[in-house]
């Protein structure tokens, strides 16, 4: 099976390149090799590879910068997925795409299900929702996995930021009124690969996802605040020379251009039921990830 992976240098893309490689002949492209703001380049790349499966791990993910760069954000997060959906349809290929808990407004106080109505608070979330809707409208065989608070040892993410700040600051001040579930990029990639691997028994990936695909939530079990996440990182990161205290603060004391949902825990039970993939509690995964920092 030919697999086309887009966004191979992102935190999730890097893990997907590893996790998907046993499943087929993988062509993995970086931004330098395929710029998703170039519609014609997307069509050419897909037609050149002729994949049975397209996996899109690329996105515009700078939530605050996105507020000022609406046009580029929508090109990458909405227009590009639309083109991928059109091309997947044309080839009879399956499309796997990732979305975010930031499609929700945070007004709920129980885990969000796939049937809950999205209402994004920021440009990033709006653009990701439009990308979802384009795929749902156009692709006959697709899987959209909505993720939350993705971290890993590579790329820009909250865990890496906290490890850097621990070296520089005597005290960290982190918001404790935004609740979600930190999710390790490696486990998302492995769960994605496990779903793809199930297609063998179901007549191929396009047939499998035409039947069982759709929109699914996939995040760690449990929940915490960014402050709770930061405290766990500082407590358990190996080889830290200093472990400064992490002080809880309200979001109003950490003003940012983009509003964020106060609550965005995802209910991932549908993915567990249909595909048998369920991620462990966020603390357990964090410990596995931190253990990976050891030489
Ligand atoms: N990070 C998170 O907390 C969350 C992420 N998600 C979703 O998960 C998916 C993966 O995100 P993640 O790995 O964390 O994000 P990263 O920001 O780590 O990676 C995104 C990748 O997309 C690439 N990219 C950006 N713009 C373009 C472009 N114009 N053309 C081609 N490639 C481009 C980046 O390239 P370059 O390396 O050059 O910058 C980068 O490699 C995305 O769909 C994201 O929306 C969902 C929930 C949470
Ligand atoms: C570094 C830092 C952040 N914060 C706050 C700011 C913000 O409200 C919250 C989260 O920080 P960040 O800006 O790193 O996280 P953010 O970019 O909002 O993360 C989001 O990224 C996108 C791509 C997603 O899809 C989401 O699931 C989510 O992971 O923590 C502090 O309070 N103190 C600090 O020292
Ligand atoms: Mg960020």
Give an overview in words.
With 295 residues, the chain is α/β, with parallel strands linked by helices. The protein has a single domain (2-155, 182-221, 265-279), classed as NAD(P)-binding Rossmann-like Domain (Rossmann fold, 3-Layer(aba) Sandwich), CATH 3.40.50.720. Helices cover 42% and strands 16% of the residues. It has 11 helices and 12 strands. The chain has helices at residues 11-20, 39-49, 63-66, 70-91, 123-138, 158-168, 185-197, 205-212, 226-236, 269-275, 282-291, and strands at residues 2-6, 25-29, 53-56, 94-100, 142-147, 150-151, 172-175, 179-180, 183-184, 214-217, 224-225, 246-249. A 6-stranded parallel sheet has the order 2-1-3-4-5-10, sandwiched between helices. Strands 6-9 form a two-stranded parallel sheet. The chain has a two-stranded parallel ribbon with strand order 7-12. The longest helix has 22 residues, at 70-91. It is globular and about 55 Å long. The model has no long low-confidence stretch (mean pLDDT 97). Dtdp-4-keto-L-rhamnose binds at residues 61, 63, 100-102, 148-150, 158, 161, 165, 172-175, 178, 226, 251, 254, 256, 260. It comes from Thiobacter aerophilum. InterPro entries: dTDP_dehydrorham_reduct (IPR005913), NAD(P)-bd_dom_sf (IPR036291), RmlD-like-bd (IPR029903). This is dTDP-4-dehydrorhamnose reductase. Catalyzes the reduction of dTDP-6-deoxy-L-lyxo-4-hexulose to yield dTDP-L-rhamnose.
């Amino acid at each position: 099976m030919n697999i086309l992976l887009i966004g191979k240098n992102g935190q999730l893309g890097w893990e997907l390149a590893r996790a998907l490689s046993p499943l087929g002949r993988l062509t993995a492209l970086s931004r330098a090799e395929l710029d998703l703001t170039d519609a014609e380049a997307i069509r050419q790349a897909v037609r050149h590879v002729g994949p049975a499966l397209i996996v899109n791990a690329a996105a515009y993910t700078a939530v605050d910068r996105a507020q000022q760069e609406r046009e580029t954000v929508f090109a990458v997060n909405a227009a590009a997925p639309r083109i991928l959906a059109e091309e997947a349809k044309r080839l009879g290929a399956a499309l796997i795409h990732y979305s975010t808990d930031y499609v929700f407004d945070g007004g709920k106080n129980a885990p969000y299900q796939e049937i809950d109505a999205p209402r994004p608070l920021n440009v990033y979330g709006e653009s990701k929702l439009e990308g979802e809707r384009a795929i749902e409208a156009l692709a006959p065989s697709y899987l959209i996995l909505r993720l939350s608070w993705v971290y890993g040892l590579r790329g820009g993410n909250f865990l890496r930021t906290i490890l850097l700040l621990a070296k520089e600051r005597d005290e960290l001040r982190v918001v404790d009124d935004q609740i979600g579930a930190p999710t390790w990029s490696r486990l998302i990639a492995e769960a994605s690969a496990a779903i793809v691997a199930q297609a063998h028994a179901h007549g191929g990936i396009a047939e499998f996802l035409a039947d069982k695909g759709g929109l699914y939530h996939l995040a760690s079990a449990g929940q915490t605040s960014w402050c709770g996440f930061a405290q766990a990182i500082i407590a358990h990161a190996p080889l830290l020379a200093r472990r400064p205290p992490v002080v809880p603060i309200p979001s109003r004391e950490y003003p940012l251009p983009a509003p964020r949902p106060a609550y965005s825990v995802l209910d991932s039970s549908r993915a567990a039921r249909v595909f048998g993939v369920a991620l462990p509690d966020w603390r357990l995964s964090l410990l596995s990830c931190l253990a990976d920092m050891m030489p």
